[in-house]
Structures are given as C-alpha cells and as structure tokens.
Design brief:
Order of helices and strands: HEEEHEHEEEHEHEHHEHEHHEH
Number of strands: 12
Mean pLDDT: 97
Number of domains: 1
Structural class: alpha/beta
Strand order of the largest sheet: 1-4-5-8-9-10-11-12
CATH architecture: Alpha-Beta Barrel
Shape: globular
CATH class: Alpha Beta
Radius of gyration: 20 Å
Helix content: 25-40%
Bound molecules: ligand PBG
C-alpha cells in the first residue's frame, strides 16, 4: 500500500519512537581499545599521526585497565614495542616483554576486563615484516610462512601464560591459527581464546599504526601475505579456513573501506565477528575534526554504528574511550 497510506516518517516523529524501532545500537561493551606498551618509556609518548593516542609505559597498565573497566569497554587489545629488535622477532616471546608484563598488571588491577593481545612479529623484527625472512637462490627475499609459525606459537604462549583472555594473530601466515591452538592446548591453555585477524587486507590505512608500533617494513610491502583489496570471495575462504583451524572469533580489517566484506563474512560464519576501525580511519576522522570539517561526536558514533550495522559484533577502535564517554 504505497503513499499516501504508507508513510515511513510516522516512526521518525519523536526520539522515543526512533529509539523504539532502531535496528542497530552501539554500547561501550561493543568496543575494544587498542593500546601500545613501550618497554623503554617512563612517561606516555604521544603518537604524532594519531592525535589523542599515546605509547604507554608498562607502569601505566594498571591504571589503563581500571579506566577501561570503569568505562565498561568490551576489552583492550595490546601491542608491544620492545627495547631491541632482531631478525626473527624472538623478543615477542619474552615473558618479561612489554605485553606479558602489561597483561599481568592489567589482569590483577581489573580481573573482569577482557584482555586481548596481538600476536605478530612485526613490532619485534628489525626489518618490520610479519614473519621470518628467507632468501631464494636468485636472491629474492620473502617471508617464510612455515618457519614463522613456531615463533608465533611461542609468542601466543607467552601471552597466554601472562593471563591474556584472548590471543589475536595478525600476521596472515597460512596455518597459524591451527599451530597456535595446538601449542596452547599442548600445555593446557585450552581456555585461551583465539581471535583471528582472518580477513586482513594489504591496506594504506595502516600508515599511522606503523609509526605507533614502529613496524614499517624496511623493504618491500606486505602484499605477499595480506589480502588484495579487490578480493571479496577470498574473504569467505580465509574465514572458513581459520574457523576450521579452531579460531573462536574472526576479524575483518580495515573496517570502513570493507563493510561489504564484513557483511559477507557475517553471513558465512556463526562465530562472533569483529572489525578493526584502523589507525588510518581514525587519523582521517581526527584530521577532518581538527580542520573544523566534521562534528566529532556525531561522526564517531555514525562510523561505529555503520560498522555494527554491517555485521560486527564488536569493534576495535581508537575512539573507544571517547565513544564510551558519549554513550554513558
Ligand atoms: C600487524 C598489525 C598491523 C595492525 C594491527 N596489527 C599493521 C600492519 O599489518 O601493517 C594495524 C592496526 C591499525 O592500523 O590500526 N601486527
């Protein structure tokens, strides 16, 4: 029965009616705050490309955990910057590295807070790639998939031993979810969950993060292991493989330029699906706000709503604390 009988505006007349029929809502529980712990700092150090985000000393971990818990956030995702790097990223597995130390502090300060830790070697390698390198007879250098699985598994184990609720491999090596699950189960960490960065694109939008985590590749790029931005069917394949290997949750990353992919992955799996509203998405919005071009509270909530609407159960976002403040 078309107009004049059908009138969608009837349900938009008051804010109470709009709230009653709203399909998608965002709450602080849906938001996970990424954080950077730097082993060499005594004071927070601002990240120039990400206004409002700091690298933190481990001594701030307990306070940060209490703040996140008070805001009612869904959790935190930890990244670490070591004092020294090596070819293979071995320091990622150091139980006294910045991430295991921060996990212990956070879990004892706020035991109910969900603490997740990013598993990758790029913050720990001198070359900035997400894996161990190998040189082919013709001199070509690339990332050795299978040789990387061992160090990733040991990093995941170090985080699990420190008390992480969730370990989150972001390297995009084939088979890493299965390798990490086997390593954890082998020593009794059967309850540590795996959030797989299953669908991660080779994206320009990670630019600011590479400053934040000091992990820009020193040569080449990540296109040999991260996904091609043109591919959507491949996302369902990556999601299926990680689910079969034992992932408990899947992630799509970045978020805004890949909302179509997020919605496909949501249809393809019954696992919880996360999306990462990455550093470049954050920097873009903050730059527009500081130039007076956008209203920050409205823009942030609209971005987060769109990511939820596309199918994300939860969102990793640098806006988490600000948004939680708005949502009360
Ligand atoms: C890799 C990793 C990256 C991000 C999270 N984990 C960078 C990359 O793959 O280059 C990006 C996060 C962001 O841009 O906010 N360890």
């Amino acid at each position: 029965m078309p107009f004049p009988v059908e009138r969608p505006r009837r349900l938009r007349r008051t804010s109470a009616l709009r709230a009653l029929v709203r399909e998608t809502v965002v709450t602080p529980r849906d938001l996970v705050l990424p954080m950077f712990f730097h082993a060499g700092l005594v004071e927070p150090r601002p990240i120039a490309t990400m206004p409002g985000v700091d690298q933190l000393p481990v001594s701030h971990a307990a306070r940060a955990a209490r703040e996140a818990a008070t805001l009612g956030l869904g959790g935190v995702m930890l990244f670490g910057l070591p004092v020294a790097k090596d070819e293979r990223g071995e320091r990622g597995a150091d139980p006294d590295g910045p991430v295991p130390r921060a996990i212990r502090e956070m879990k004892s300060a706020a035991p109910g807070l969900v603490v997740m830790a990013d598993v990758c070697v790029d913050e720990y390698t001198t070359h900035g790639h997400c894996g161990v390198l190998r040189t082919a007879p013709d001199g070509a250098v690339d990332v050795d998939n299978d040789a990387t699985l061992d160090v990733l598994s040991r990093i995941a184990l170090a985080y699990a031993e420190a008390g992480a609720d969730v370990v989150a491999p972001s390297d995009m090596m084939d088979g890493r979810v299965g390798a990490i699950r086997a390593a954890l189960d082998g020593v009794g960490f059967t309850d540590t969950a795996i959030l797989s960065y299953a669908v991660k694109y080779a994206s320009a939008f990670y630019g600011p993060f590479r400053d934040a985590a000091d992990c820009a590749p020193q040569f080449g790029d990540r296109a040999g292991y991260q996904m091609d931005p043109g591919n959507a069917r491949e996302a369902s394949r990556e999601a299926r493989l990680d689910e079969q290997e034992g992932a408990d949750m899947l992630m799509v990353k970045p978020a805004l330029p890949y909302l179509d992919v997020l919605s496909k992955v949501r249809e393809a799996t019954s696992l919880p699906v996360a999306a990462y509203n990455v550093s470049g998405e954050y920097a873009m919005l903050k730059a527009a706000v500081s130039a007076g071009m956008l209203d920050e509270p409205r823009a942030v909530l609209e971005v987060l709503t769109s990511i939820r609407r596309a199918g994300a159960d939860f969102i990793l976002t640098y806006h988490a604390a600000f948004a939680a403040g708005l949502l009360g």
